[in-house]
Specification:
Layout lengths: L3 E4 L6 H13 L4 E4 L7 H8 L8 E4 L2 E4 L1 H11 L10 H16 L2 H6 L15 H21 L10 H15 L6 H11 L2 H14 L8 H4 L13
Parallel strand pairs: 1-2
Antiparallel strand pairs: 1-3, 3-4
Helix pairs in contact: 1-3, 1-7, 4-7, 7-8
Length: about 230
């Protein structure tokens, strides 16, 4: 029986993107179960699909539930040890986990002001001081790793830690955020990765599906656009 990855809308669900990238990078066979996060009564469906947790991403293995992207990263890495989700060097591996954990628990201002929206671009967005502070912290985390590894990713090859920062790469592009050329090149490398291209293309296909909507996304500022990320 394949594990089932429960995710939300690809266009807007940043945590779903992380979970999907982790599972795809592992090379494990898995099935997907997507739930529209702006559908009527979506919470009831998610609660049933995730063993009562209600969050995405969640991996379901029969009656076993693996919730939260950090736990999914460890599950995928242990289930597919040759996939190289984490660096081989112990110190690199510890640092990569540290960076992923900081992304997992921080950057609240950036998340709130710049929600993931793969279908649009907002060139007139002006970041406030809190967002600028988050961007400066990202540079502090990224630049030493990129200098040591030589890029294009934080520890050379695309891995779990880069999956955790993938939604940030979309935010940098979508909101035209002011970052250094090195940080922008890293974000572009993530956006151009084949798995990211696949996710964005699948998000575009999802967007045209007929369904009932509650207006939750539009009310939250998740306005649709003309999919500039597809035309990079």
């Amino acid at each position: 029986m394949n594990p089932v990855l429960v995710i939300g809308d690809r266009t807007y669900s940043s945590w779903s993107l992380r979970g999907w990238l982790l599972m795809a990078l592992s090379g494990l066979d898995f099935d997907e179960e997507m739930h529209w996060l702006d559908a009527p009564n979506y919470k009831e469906g998610l609660l049933a699909a995730t063993g009562g947790g209600g969050g995405v991403p969640t991996v379901r293995l029969g009656s076993r539930i693996i919730a939260d992207s950090m736990a999914i990263a460890e599950y995928a890495a242990e289930a597919a040890p040759d996939a190289g989700l984490w660096p081989k060097d112990p110190l690199d591996r510890a640092e990569a986990r540290s960076l992923a954990a900081q992304m997992h628990s921080g950057f609240a201002a950036l998340r709130k002001a710049c929600p993931m929206n793969l279908s649009n671009r907002f060139p007139d967005f002006v970041p406030d001081d809190a967002v600028k502070a988050d961007l400066a912290r990202l540079e502090q985390l990224w630049l030493p790793c990129l200098e040591r590894s030589g890029g294009p990713f934080l520890f050379g090859a695309f891995g779990a830690v880069d999956a955790f920062f993938a939604p940030v790469a979309t935010r940098i592009d979508t909101f035209c955020l002011p970052v250094s050329p090195t940080a922008r090149a890293y974000a572009d490398a993530i956006l151009d990765h084949p798995l990211m291209r696949q996710w964005i293309a699948d998000a575009r296909l999802e967007a045209d599906m007929a369904r009932d909507r509650t207006g939750r996304f539009s009310e939250g500022g998740f306005t649709p656009g003309d999919w500039p990320l597809l035309n990079r």
